[in-house]
Design brief:
The chain has 332 residues and is of the alpha/beta class. It has a single domain (15-326), classed as Rossmann fold (3-Layer(aba) Sandwich), CATH 3.40.50. The protein is built from twelve helices and eight strands. Strands 3-2-1-4-5-6-7-8 form an eight-stranded mixed sheet, sandwiched between helices. It has helices at 28-39, 51-70, 74-79, 95-108, 135-161, 196-221, 242-245, 250-265, 269-281, 287-290, 305-308, 310-326, and strands at 19-23, 43-48, 84-89, 114-117, 169-173, 226-231, 294-296, 299-300. The structure holds NADP nicotinamide-adenine-dinucleotide phosphate. Keywords: Membrane, NADP, Oxidoreductase, Transmembrane, Transmembrane helix.
Length: 332
């Protein structure tokens, strides 16, 4: 089902300033999520590792926005206000950078209405970050965990002092690949096995499963904040698969497979962003009914059995707290 984002509420940021922090809004699904939020009057902070890419993305966003607004009727022009776009530097592969970004954001804004953990890297060679975590696990799970926990007091405060804006929201962009994980995993295992181009998918799947666990635990512990995970769908035309398609010889085979998948059941980045935008803005998604849920398009759908298991989710949570503690990162 194609989601119609025009049915989502439009805000006037001068009267109702609602802020969003999104990781990686410069390309793919993130880019079009930012476009939708901006069109609906949100103040959006794009947190990414390259100022240059962000500047270009903001320029491109402004062009796309101008073209969309051009097509508005007079009535739509009168009623719909654009939001704001800002950039914050953040490299999820360095936890110190996450902490710096949190501090920078807190200097700039008093409130945070929506946090979107969108960034992720897919199927890379086995790499360990300077923080001692596998790169995909850190980018898709550990760093989003730290970012969210550090911004939690702000999200709580926003929900408390601005009830008219509805609950603050944490959105985690997941992937259907999490279903590759069919038994509980040990996050301390490196999963550095040969051949990499197979096991790298599994490392990614583990990271995305941990991300879903995180949303479930966060929802349980913070019932006044709306925490959900969402699947964008099969967006084959993003940079997400570029490591595989650039491999010598086998890369061409991957490229052919992705082209066929894209032709048969692929969607555009724009379509992939709509479910994310819907989780951010829909007033029919509520804490009482939907907290901890997993969304596909606008529907709640069960994630894998492993991702849905609350005992495993608790183990993932405890492991992460323990690991951050070992690195002397205060998350109290
Ligand atoms: N494409 C799909 O079919 C699909 C399906 C399901 C879920 N998803 C999920 O959707 C999300 C967005 O993916 P996409 O398809 O839109 O691909 P994408 O265009 O490659 O987006 C990934 C983003 O993550 C950012 N990123 C990577 N490492 C980072 C780091 N260390 N610090 C900060 N940002 C970093 C990248 O920023 P740079 O510009 O700096 O590289 C890029 O903007 C991902 O979480 C992905 O797993 C995608």
């Amino acid at each position: 089902m194609v989601l119609d984002t025009q049915t989502l509420p439009y805000l006037n940021p001068e009267k109702d300033r609602r802020t969003v922090l999104i990781t990686a809004g410069t390309s793919g699904v993130g880019f079009f999520t930012v476009l939708q939020l901006h069109l609906h009057g949100y103040v959006v902070y794009l947190a990414g590792r390259s100022k240059n890419r962000a500047t270009k993305a903001i320029e491109r966003l402004r062009c796309e926005l101008a073209a969309i607004v051009e097509g508005y009727s007079l009535e739509q022009r009168a009623k719909r206000c654009l939001g704001e776009l800002h950039y914050l530097e953040m490299d999820l592969a360095r936890l110190s950078s996450v902490l710096e970004t949190v501090a920078a954001y807190q200097q700039l804004e008093e409130n945070l209405n929506i946090l979107i953990n969108n960034a992720g890297v897919l199927v890379l060679p086995f790499t360990v970050t300077e923080d001692g975590f596998e790169l995909q696990l850190q980018t898709s799970y550990i760093a989003p965990f730290l970012l969210t926990i550090k911004l939690l007091p702000m999200l709580e405060r926003t929900s408390y002092y601005h009830p008219e804006a509805g609950p603050a929201r944490v959105i985690y962009v997941s992937s259907v690949i999490h279903r590759m994980v069919v038994s509980q995993f040990n996050l301390s295992t490196s999963l550095n096995y040969y051949p990499n181009f197979i096991f790298t998918w599994y490392r990614f799947a583990v990271a995305k499963t941990a991300g879903i666990h995180f949303m479930k635990m966060l929802a349980l512990r913070n019932p006044r904040i709306l925490c959900v995970s969402v699947l964008p769908g099969n967006v084959m035309n993003t940079d997400h698969f570029s490591y595989l398609t650039r491999l010598p010889i086998i890369g061409f085979i991957f490229w052919c497979i992705f082209q066929i998948c894209s032709y048969c059941f692929g969607i555009t980045s724009q379509e992939g962003a709509n479910p994310v935008a819907n989780c951010c803005m829909s007033t029919s998604i509520t804490t009482t009914k939907d907290n901890g849920s997993h969304f596909l398009s606008s529907n709640v759908k069960n994630p894998s059995i492993i991702a849905n298991n609350m005992d495993y989710a608790a183990q993932t949570w405890i492991w992460t707290i323990h690991q951050l503690g070992k690195r002397k990162i205060d998350i109290s």
